[in-house]
Amino acid sequence: MKRLPNKWLVVVSVLFGTFTVILNNSMLNPILPRFIEIFDSNAVSVGWILTIFMVAMGMTMPLTGYFGDRFGKKKVYLSGLCLFLVGSLCGFFSSTLSMVIVSRAIQGMAGGLMLPIAMALIFQSFPRHERGLAVGVYGIAAMVAPAIGPTIGGFLIQYVDWPWLFALNIPFGLTGLVLSSKYLERTETHPEKKFDLVGFLIVSLGIGGLLFALGRGRTLDHLLDPINIVLIVVGLAAVVLFVFYENRQDDPLLNLSVFRVPTYAASIVVTSAASIGLFSGIFLLPLLIQNVYGWSEVMTGLLFLPAAAASGVFMSLGGRILDKKGPRYVVPPGLAIMAAATFALGFLHLSTPYWLILLLNTVRGVGMGMGNMPATTSGMNSIPDHLVAQGSAMNNIIRQMSSSIGIVFFSVYYEVRRAQIQAASDIDLQAATLQTLNEAFLVSGVVLVLAIPFSFILKGAQDDSKE
Q: How far apart are CA 259 and CA 288, in angstroms?
């Protein structure tokens, strides 16, 4: 470890922690039906295991900019990692569903502290022209963990009891804690900084309401439930109110002026589209593999492994190209590759072989690696260094919202459209399911294509030096 330059030790340190947070969440996704049996509960109650994590994380993220400035970014990151370990221990020793949900809330708050601060710590350690590769390596956690998590979770639940899904976090978290304590650099603190309580209450109502509504709105009935509609309306109103309120504050909780920077604003659009593309695949492909072709959960998990590897490799490669050439040489091609492979998934047949679907998903991973993190890096590079933590927080919040919106949309689309196709024709359930999924992949491809023009707005350090 000592042979690595200090700046790369920072990347390794935060990689352990953030990878563990994201991996744990994705491991639990396919296990929810098992929790219904274990706790003799229903899908709505068990769904809180995911929903509470998402809501707690989204409501905590706006605080990271203030905490980082007030107490120092290293302290905030270490506190978040310690809190995540506490949540994992609570989950391991849980004996009821309520205890599991509380444990997940603790983990969500920890993730909300860690993820935005991790990016800020990396940016603090690297000059602008080297951040592409650094964030590309770090981004492996964000891209690969959701892809391999379901496979690991499915494997573990076959051979060990469910509490070990939480116990797996502990060795990784402790390793990250030791490395972070040793190698993360202390940052400047501002004890005089005031806390914007009103702004926090408004944004918590907005983000919390929207994420809660999206988390429970996976079917059309739930989405159109009166309580859900009220939550969405109140959440949107609170977000609008927050924007007006923060723009009038001298020391806002979140400095929204970063959205006036064209590169940052464009990067938000690009990463939001890429997140919808990523999570549409994570949701739709298992349905395709199991419900259409009747292949096993193991084959479903294996489908994501080459894509995860390709995403990791091309994320690092894309970071190098970003550092040397600029975002326009890597982000638009990445989005185009991902869109093309997604469109190809929209033309599958009942006779399509498994290897072809695996190949197309791997190509999607290539495009994701090239398009997502380089766009994030160029956007973060375009804002002042003292706003990086806040910019990272807003990037993560919007990405979380985009992913949730994408999953809800494709969940409802799958439910409604499949029923329409069956009612309007004589085809069987298998064919109707395939047609529905084909259409859904085409929609996902369109979303990615619409983001390509925005990717040409992105500028890098190379463009700044020419001006």
A: 38
Q: CATH homologous superfamily for 256-467?
A: MFS general substrate transporter like domains (1.20.1250.20)
Alpha-carbon gap, residue 265 to 273, rounded angstroms: 13
Q: Is the separation of the CB atoms in 78 and 181 below 8 Å?
A: yes
Q: Answer whether 1-183 and 256-467 agree in fold.
A: yes
Round to whole Å and give the CA distance between 270 and 450: 9
The domain ranges of the chain are 1-183, 196-252, 256-467
pLDDT at 375: 94
- Residues 194-207: b if buried by 16+ CB within 10 A, e if exposed: eebeebbebbbbbb
pLDDT in tens, 319-361: 999 999 999 999 999 999 999 999 999 999 999 999 999 999 9
As a whole number of angstroms, the distance between CA 102 and CA 100 comes to 5
91/97 Cα distance (integer angstroms):
10
User: Is the pLDDT assigned to residue 464 strictly greater than 50?
Assistant: yes
Contacts with 451 (C-beta within 8 Å, 6 or more apart), sequence order: 269, 270, 272, 273, 274, 335
Using the predicted structure, report yes or no on whether residue 465 has a pLDDT greater than 50. Answer: no
Q: Domain 1-183 belongs to what topology?
A: Growth Hormone; Chain: A; (1.20.1250)
Q: Please, what's the b/e burial string for 219-250 (b: 16 or more CB within 10 A of its CB; e: otherwise)?
A: beebbeeeebeebbebbeebbeebeebbeeee
CA distance 143 to 315: 9
Q: What percent of the chain has pLDDT over 70?
A: 97
CA nearest neighbour of 120 among 403, 347, 380: 380
- The pTM of the full predicted model, rounded to 2 decimals, is 0.89
**79-107 per-position pLDDT tens digit:** 999 999 999 999 999 999 999 999 999 99
> Which burial class, exposed, middle or buried, applies to 347 when counting CB atoms under 10 A from its CB (0-12, 13-18, 19+)?
exposed
Distance CA(223)–CA(213), nearest Å, equals 7
